[in-house]
Every structure is written in structure tokens, then in C-alpha cells.
Amino acid sequence: MTRLSLSRLLAPGPADAVVPPSGHTAWLTLFTAGAMTFLAVFALALALASGRLAERWAGALERTATVRLSAPEDQIDRQVKAVLALLSTTPGIASARALDEEEQRKLLEPWFGPDLPVKALPLPRLIEVVEDGAGYDAEGLRLRLTAEAPGAVLDDHARWRRPLAVAAARLVLLGWLSIGLIGLTMAAMITLAANAALAANAQVIRVLRLVGARDSYIARAFVRRFTLRALAGAGVGAVAGMIGIAALPGAEAAGGFLTGLGFQGAGWLLPLLLPFLAGGVAFAATRAAAFRKLREFH
Amino acid sequence: MISFENVAYNYGGGELLSDISLRLAPGSFHFLTGPSGAGKTTFLKLCYAELLPTAGRVTLFDREVRGLARDDVAMTRRRIGVVHQDCQFLDHLPLGDNVALPLTVAGRPGAARDLADLLAWVGLERLTDALPPSLSGGERQRAALARAIIMGPDVILADEPTGNLDWEMSLRLLTLLVELNRMGKTVLVATHDLNLIRQAKSQIPARVLRIAKRRIQLAGADL
Fold first, then answer.
1. What mean pLDDT is predicted for residues A102-128?
2. Rounded to an integer, what distance in angstroms lies between the CA atom of residue B103 and that of residue B112?
3. Do B74 and A204 touch (CB under 8 A)?
4. Using an 8 Å Cβ cutoff, are A89 and A203 in contact?
5. Distance of alpha carbon B19 from the chain centroid
6. Which residue of B1, B46, B73, B221 shows the fewest CB atoms closer than 10 Å?
7. Interface predicted TM-score (ipTM) over 0.90
8. A-B interface: how many C-beta pairs under 8 angstroms?
């Protein structure tokens, strides 16, 4: 069997003319490729945004911890100093500082508003701890804190950092899985369209076999047509998807995950690869369908 | 060139052809006769490997058809010109492109002059740009013959080529087949038109094969 390569396929040849222009299968392929690529752009954006989010969460929280200190008012300052002194001599800790009233008010502002009387409330004092590259022994530090300041609690963020990281990683996985499913769905739809076109052209195939055409020659006419249609449809779908992503409100407007869904920098080039991926899917799907169908003709 | 050894064929029920052995020698002219449904078309399809025998061996140009890969079948068919009774064409292509189709699929674009000469030989030179659906039955048969011989095949198989033609047009087609045979081509024509056979035998030493009771035998000389 003669090889039917992508480069030979894309070179126009006389095989194109032997298959009559087709109607509904052309539109079905164009629409399917366009719609699926449009969806794939969003899935890609989701995967990339989730990846960025996971990195950001991990980066922001990985090297920080918080000591929460509760003590009677007349002892609190002394215990803060003791904890800071302890932290400054703990291996693996780069720096430690107590948050001032203003910083604590800002932390609570989203829940209690800007006029919160921080001093009047029995709030614990918070000490921000930054690790160095080597890290510290969290269990050892907890024991020492208990000895120095019984009301001090070390929160290394692991408790809520872990589920966030897992959730972000799963979102990344879901994004790529969606792209895979979209590709498979597109392959199935294009295979159906190609089968319909091959069945509609059974007489053409019979005549071509009768006059000595090889399978690769006959297949080329169908494969080239479907691949180019998928490329064109996917091109439109990718551009439409990118416009949709670009039209999302900016992160400054509202903040949060959804507004960070867009592409960044070179990431904008990735959706442009999708039409070629769609063309490859169409090439493989149509080629398999064509050779399978041609085996029905001896 | 084409030989059958104890060939049988059935479509899943009883055998349509059974224990057939014969050899079509190069340059020979054979008619194949028999009642409708006797298996004439099936026999021809075995001759160009559209069907594979259910028993026995069919050999085309010294190669057993069962051992031919699909590409080999295609290459073999370039040496066999086939004219069907229903003359299928690619209806969206003009007649000239249809006749030149064997050259196109073989990647051997022929000279326009050669195509014009061939169409003139079959009397269709004025219909080069016509689409097949607009052709009459006789024009379609002659176009099919032109397509069958454009590659210069060694063998020409014709299945009821005059089935839809009047006597005058049948004689014209027969004359073309006789001319081809005189050029050295092997010709096998399936027909039930005994007048056509008698006319041919008056011009060339054609032999007549008859399918009867699932077997092929040489018919009597009185045909």
C-alpha cells in the first residue's frame, strides 16, 4: 500500500477532481471542527489558568507560616517578644515579624468592615514566619513554642494548602481531559461525515477501482478534502474562542479565578496550534475511514 | 494471459459456476453466451479480479489472483479494459476526462491529441466536453470502450456491450472490437446476441464459449 503522508496529502493533485463536490458532509465537518475547537480553546484556557493558580497558591504559601498567639492583655507583648526571639534562633526560618494593628484590620476588613476596633476585641496576635530554602522542623518548633508561650499555635498552612493544590491539579487534569474528549468527539463526527461521503460516492469508488486506481489514490481525494475542511473550520473556531477569552473581564475588575482565565504572553500562541491538531485528527480519522471503506470494494 | 483451473464460484447459496478450466490465449477473440443468470457477468468479474473464486485458481498474467495485494489488483486492472453494460462514469466530469480517467489515476496524463484521436475513432470527438448523463446509450457504450482501451490494455472484456443498442450501433461497436483484436488485443465479449456472434465470425476466427449447467463449454460451430 502506497504511503499516504501529510505532505503528499496537502499537495493538490488530480485525485481531487475525481470526487464530486459534496454538500452536507462539508458543512458538518466545518461546523464540527469549528465548534469543537472553540470549546477546546476554553478547555485550554482552563488548564493553563489552573496551572498558574496552582503555582501561585503553592508559591505564596509554601514558604510561609503563621504563629497565632493568644494571651492575657498584660502578657501579650512579652510573649510576642519571646516568640520572635525563639523564631530568630530557629534553624530554617529566614525571618519573622508580628503583624501590626493596621495589617490585622486589613485582614479582617472583608468580614467586619473598615471600622473594626481591633484593640477592643480579644484578637490573637499574628506573627508571619518566612522559611529559608532548607525549611524548619515544624513539630520541634511547636514543642518549643508551647514551652515559651503556651498560647502560641503554629499554622504552617499545610492543612488548607494541600486541598487547594490538589483541587488546582485536578482542574489542570480536567482541562486536558476535556481537550482529549473534544478531540475524540471531533474524530468520531468527522469519521461519520467521511463514511457518509464515502457511501454517497460508492459508484465513484467502483469506477475508480475498475480503471485501476489504487486505494491510496482514492483515499487521498477524501482525506485531503476533509483535512482541509477541518483546518478551515478549526481556524475559525480558534479565532472565535480567542476573541471570547479576550472579551472576559480583566483580573483588576473583579479579581478571582474566572477573571484570570485568559491566556498570558506566549500562551496566546497555543490556541493557534489547535487547528493543526484538528487537521491531524481529521487526517487520521478520514484516512482510517477511507481505507476501511475501500476494503469493501475488491 | 487469463487462465481458470477448476474454478467454482457461489454467492453463498448453491454454486453458480463449477469446475471451469480454460485459457484465453493472447490475441484470441471469444464470445461468452448463455441464458440470463447463467453466470456470464460473474465469469467476467472473475477475469478482472472483482470476484475471487470460491474454489480453484484464476491466473491473470501468470499471477494467481488470490495472492494479489490490493495495489497489485489495481495494477493488473490497468492491463485489462472492461466495458460494462451499464457503463458507469463519473457524472460530474466531462466525457474527455472520463475517457482519460485510467491515465489520470495511473499518473500518466496523456497527450490531448491522443485523446482526441481516440474519441474520433469511436465517433465521439464532438462530445469531449459533454457530461455523461447527457449521452445516449450508444454514445455511452462507445465512450466506455474508449476508456477501456486508452491505457493500451492487453485484454478487453465487454459485458453485453450491445445490450441497449440498435443493430446499426451494435455493428459499429463490433467493428471497433474486431479492429482492436486485429491489433493484437485479447477480446472476450459476453452476449446473448447470436446475430452479433455470426457477424463477428464472418470477419474473424472468434470462438464461442457457452455457460450451461454451471459449466463452460465450446459452443457448436453453427452459431
1. 79
2. 12
3. no
4. no
5. 22
6. B221
7. no
8. 67
